[in-house]
Specification:
Number of domains: 3
Oligomer: single chain
Number of helices: 6
Distance between the termini: 53 Å
Shape: globular
CATH topology of the largest domain: Rossmann fold
Structural class: mainly beta
CATH architecture of the largest domain: 3-Layer(aba) Sandwich
Length: 456
């Protein structure tokens, strides 16, 4: 179960670990050896506990040297990280019922300077992996400086083997975020308003209305660190063939929304298509841009596809009428969007309510943005130069100390091929090919060219 819950939030090539290529691993942080849990009814003491450190040692095998440092001395931990091929930093937080956290940093309430430890290790070791054992969203100010980030939640008594299995790619991380990870504390709906938090005279005022969680971020067009529903896989998926089956006339519901999911990568993995509904705007009625109304989960082998159906009922299209104190369906066009997260919804269709004239449902093809964001993966140190080509024409050149993403204007053609050439700080040049056709996207790494070494 924990393997299906672990959520991979970032991966620039350090994962999955390969014990044939990785010869030394520095494991850092007390949560690697201690049982992490929350407070209140969630506070338990297990009869047995399989910790991550020993699980990593066992999975790595005798050919890989695994060192451990509890992180209490950042300088020593940094030295260990620099000497290893990969550093894995474990960090935790503390959530409990009956009390709010004072802040969302990893220091609250009394967890030590874990943010400083992660930053120091990442500065010394470009292949730093962070494993968070947390009860909810945390701030991640170091996210652009680490290679990979796993959210393991409170992993339970057998969490160690589950974490090790995901780290080494024995299974695919199956989790997706049930909450939004904010980019900064100022993005939170409670920021700067003491009536919202911590309250005045022991009274807290909930002013968000229906804009709770991801709905707040979407309504205010705030870019989070990691959006609701987000989670990476070790493979890639494409979404196509959106279908909307209408219920009998007058019912105001759709019997089901269908989507075809294809594993376009080279490994088996978990796909989690999500269905969001956006209601039409009404005078005096506040509604978020879209709300989650269904999801599915399927394990797919490479090249295989599955057609999934997610049911909807009247409630999925309803708003609360405070005047009549009842759920009502408004006349208009309800937007149906399907994709991999609340911020990645390539398929769009519409359901007409009360005879409203709507665009064809579903919209043919996929909803394509005007820009493409390319994640840059570098195995041999940070990427310092990235060139993007369409055919022989270079359309983008970026130079920086550490490049993790590149944004380009999307070519006008429905089908096109990008060639991305990445040069790392270590002098290694990696070329990958990205092919786009309609809603599908496939990519393959073609070659890695290492700098020539002089013969002695």
């Amino acid at each position: 179960m924990e393997e299906s819950a672990i959520t991979m939030l970032q991966n620039h090539g350090a994962l999955p670990l390969d014990s044939r290529r990785v010869h030394s691993i520095a494991v850092i942080g007390k949560p690697a050896t201690t049982f992490v849990t929350g407070g209140g009814s969630g506070s338990v003491t297990p009869f047995a506990f399989a910790d991550p450190l020993h699980a990593i040692e066992q999975r790595a095998g005798s050919g890989v040297r695994v060192s451990y440092d509890d992180g209490s001395n950042a300088a020593k931990a940094t030295t260990d990280a620099r000497a290893a091929d990969v550093a894995i930093v474990f960090a935790d937080d503390y959530y409990t019922e009956g009390a709010d956290r004072a802040c969302l940093t990893l220091e609250c309430p009394n967890q030590g300077n874990q943010d400083g430890l992660i930053s120091a290790v990442a500065a010394a070791q470009p292949r730093t992996v962070v494993v968070l054992e947390s009860g909810g969203p945390d701030l991640t100010p170091w996210r652009d400086r680490v290679n990979a980030l796993l959210e393991a939640w409170y992993p339970g008594e057998q969490g160690g083997p589950a974490i090790a299995n995901v780290l080494f790619g024995d299974t695919d991380p199956g989790g997706r975020l049930p909450a939004t990870f904010p980019g900064s504390a100022s993005d939170l709906p409670t920021a700067g308003d003491v009536e919202k938090y911590p309250g005045v005279l022991d009274e807290v005022t909930y002013k968000e209305g229906v804009f709770v969680g991801y709905r707040w971020f979407d309504a205010h067009q705030i870019t989070p660190a990691f959006p609701f529903g987000f989670g990476l896989s070790y493979t890639k998926f494409s979404y196509s063939k959106l279908t909307i089956a209408s219920a009998p006339a007058g019912s105001g519901a759709a019997e089901g929304v269908g989507v075809t999911v294809t594993n376009s990568g080279s490994r088996a993995g978990w796909a989690v298509p999500q269905l969001y509904v956006g209601l039409p705007a009404l005078p005096g009625v506040a509604e978020p841009p879209r709300q989650l109304r269904g999801f599915s989960k399927v394990w797919l082998a490479p090249g295989r596809s599955a057609t999934l159906t997610m049911p909807l009922d009247d409630r999925a299209f309803s708003y609360w009428d405070s005047r009549t104190h009842a759920w009502r369906i408004a006349r208009g066009c309800d937007a149906i969007a399907v994709g991999s997260s609340s911020r990645d919804l390539p398929l769009l269709g519409f359901v007409s309510q009360a005879g409203a004239s709507c665009p064809a449902s579903p919209t043919p093809g996929c909803r394509r943005s005007r820009t493409l964001r390319l994640a840059i993966h570098a195995d041999n140190g940070p990427a310092v130069r990235v060139a993007v080509y369409v055919g022989r024409r270079r359309i983008k050149l970026v130079r920086n100390a550490r490049i993790t993403r590149v944004t380009i204007a999307r070519p006008r053609s429905a089908s096109f091929t990008l060639r991305v050439v990445v040069r790392t700080a270590g002098g290694v040049t990696v070329t990958s090919i990205h092919r786009y056709s309609g809603c599908s996207h496939t990519s393959v790494r073609t070659r890695a060219r290492h700098p020539r070494r002089r013969r002695e």
